[in-house]
Fold this sequence. Notes:
By secondary structure, the protein is mainly beta. The chain contains 1 helix and 12 strands; from the N terminus they run ββββββββββββα. It has one helix at residues 180-196; strands at 25-32, 40-45, 50-56, 65-69, 74-81, 88-92, 98-106, 111-118, 125-132, 138-143, 149-154, 169-174. Strands 1-2-3-4-5-6-7-8-9-10-11-12 form a 12-stranded antiparallel β-barrel. The chain starts with 24 loop residues before the first strand and ends with a helix. This is Tubby C-terminal-like domain-containing protein.
Amino acid sequence: MSPAQLPPVPVPVAILDQFIARQTETLVLKEKVLSLTGDSFDVKLANGQPIFQIKGKLLTIAGRKSVFDMAGRHLFDLVKEHLRIHTTYAAHAPDGRKLLEVKSSLALVGSRTTATFTSPRTGATVSLKMRGNWRDSRADIVDEATGMVLAQIDRKLLRARQLFFDQQTYAVVVAPGVDLALITALCVCFDEKNNEA
């Protein structure tokens, strides 16, 4: 099964400009559930090229995960924000700035997940929604303003090489013009929320 080809977005959608996809890319996120530091992930392109490392911090209340590029640069931390009515995760830059907020709320059917951030290019607030169910085999990440599909999460792409030791693996097709780090952060937040259920 070959991944879908998503149309390019007219204006880049990013929290970090250096990871904007130039063509349709497929990310493969593989969770290392039994790692000694807590849940960690390896993130590669479909061709096997590593792109990010996500290192979980063991025994932290916020379940902090640090995201690094392959040169070892610390890009941001993903943390669960407590004392919120709805489950909320945030991405914080190393200098403490909030880059992204991912919030879940109950809807009439299932749950709704919304990610918001300020575009570093335009200064506008961007709102993304997850359409579909994370527990299903497929979900879309959609720009609320334009209705464009920015990424498609598809577990069936990797079903033939399913995992050992309860690890999770996700294939995520990302549209040209969309930040691979942003989509990676969203997938990790969705996974964390799903693991709580």
